[in-house]
UniProtKB/TrEMBL annotation:
This is Amino acid ABC transporter, substrate binding protein. Its main location: membrane. The keyword Ribonucleoprotein does not apply. The chain crosses the membrane at residues 7-26. It comes from Fructilactobacillus lindneri DSM 20690 = JCM 11027. One of its GO terms (cellular component) is membrane. It is found in: Membrane. Gene3D superfamilies: Periplasmic binding protein-like II. Belongs to the NlpA lipoprotein family.
Length: 289
């Protein structure tokens, strides 16, 4: 009997050790393999931001493995997010997301949270103030529908024009200009073309979004003659992290919002972009109300 019990006890010990080995090594290996890599799509300077965040110790501590994929334009990036090629995208303002959803026939995107406001600015190499712009001057604005509307609202804020009514879809067009006391002419151009027109003698000023301004080595705080301010009128211009609507409550994706606003990320962003990306940490309800 003593031999039997010694034999039985030995089996129990072996099984216990075996179970412990499985749980520690095999179990953890399976758990690591099951952790999904989150693909973040972006373009322009935002790609650099997320490549930096992907390497932060805070990201590892949050249990996230991030892969950053660079795109050349927003439309293809939003489509890639809808079809699952990209899990989350980081590039667009809330107003553009709403416009895309309104036009999309293949699903909708939803904001996970806010990131920043990049002030759009009015730039000129010939005039130092919007008051100096002459009558009949040509102003280059974006041909992108969301940015066309944003450009016109900026010109209104600067006191150059007045807009009428609430247009369909919430986006203004040049025909919505009700008061144009300087008889300004509007030249709609591709976003990438705008900065190059600063050297065009036929263009008095150019409205440029901050992504394009940064790529052209322009600082909106120092180089523009007028730029947006952070208030209720510009909340549609706040950038967001977006995902397929069906994934909007994914807890792993929501961690990305906190990571963006972490001190480590913000220290890098402020140094890299010299304060031109204004941190906006607001709930999604702020945008929707």
């Amino acid at each position: 009997m003593k031999k039997f019990w010694k034999w039985a006890a030995g089996i129990v010990v072996v099984l216990a050790i075996g179970f412990g080995f499985y749980h520690t090594f095999i179990g953890n290996h399976q758990e690591n393999n099951s952790s999904k890599t989150i693909t973040i799509g972006s373009y322009g300077p935002d790609t650099e931001v997320w490549e930096h965040i992907a390497k932060l110790p805070e990201t590892k501590k949050a249990g996230l493995n991030l892969k950053v994929q660079d795109f050349s334009d927003g439309v293809s990036l939003n489509k890639a997010t809808l079809n699952g090629e990209v899990d989350v995208n980081a590039f667009q303002m809330y107003g553009y997301l709403k416009y895309f959803n309104n036009e999309s026939k293949n699903g909708k995107l939803a904001p996970l949270g806010t990131t920043y406001l990049e002030p759009m600015g009015i730039y000129s190499k010939r005039y130092k103030s919007v008051k100096d712009l002459p009558k009949g001057a040509t102003i280059a604005i974006s041909s992108n529908p969301a940015n066309t509307s944003r450009s016109l609202k900026l010109l209104q804020s600067a006191g150059l024009i007045k807009l009428k009514g609430k247009p369909n879809g919430g986006l203004y067009k040049p025909e919505n200009v009700a008061d144009n006391h300087k008889d300004l002419k509007f030249q709609e151009v591709d976003d990438h073309t705008g900065p190059r027109l600063l050297n065009d003698k036929n263009v008095a000023a150019v409205v440029i979004g901050n992504t394009m301004a940064l790529q052209s080595h322009l600082n909106v705080k120092h180089d523009s003659i007028y730029h947006e301010k952070m208030d209720q009128s510009t909340k549609n211009n706040i950038n967001v992290l977006a995902t397929n609507e069906k994934n909007k409550n994914n807890p792993q994706y929501k961690k990305l919002v906190k990571l963006y606003h972490s001190k480590a990320a913000q220290d890098y962003i402020n140094k890299k972009f010299k304060g031109t990306k204004i941190d906006v940490d607001k709930p999604v309800s702020y945008l929707e109300n």
